[in-house]
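Case study 2.
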Amino acid sequence: MDFDNNPSREPATAAERLLLLLKTRGGQSAAALGAALGTTGEAARQQLVKLAEAGLVESAPQRAGVGRPLQLWSLTAAGHARFPDGHAEMVAGLIAGIRRELGDAALDRLIAAREAETFARYADVVAGATTLRDRIAALAGLRSREGYMAGWEEDENGFLLVENHCPICAAAAACQGFCRSELDLFRRVLGPEARVERTEHIQAGARRCAYRILPQPSRSESEHHHGV
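Prediction:
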């Protein structure tokens, strides 16, 4: 039931679909999962029990007002590990070796080189997008194809870009420079008309990484507003 390194592959079984739903939506009731699968809550619960026996999911009660607490199902650490993590052990070992043999400065240079290469590739794809909304959509598409299970939405405050999976989680855990670099990368790709802040972080214990993106007036608009 392992998910391979092709994130676009459709999950083939009900169990895989359940794992994917929990990965992308967080804690869910059996009824909600059944509805998402087009089946009954009881059928979903039976599948969840099997996954729990395999150590992939777990349930916890959540009280919502009076009455019986709702059972919410979520992935365990083993369940999260079913999703690709970019050869975690090898990457973590390489990072430790570079830091030990060449020092932190060399590691920082490698991260900067990776960021520059990624920026060039992203900028080429996003170049055709004329609005901030289009650039965010293009960026989310790029990240999804790279295994981040990315999505975005627009609300009254601006935009929210979310990544439900981190295929370089082991590298990010071994060196926080990767996370800092990715935030800088998003800011460069989306340009000066966007303010980007990370609001949820997998490395800090969150279920996903999330980025709040607020439109910023261009310099000319700002100068006009202030009567310059």
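The CA atoms of residues 63 and 69 lie 4 Å apart.
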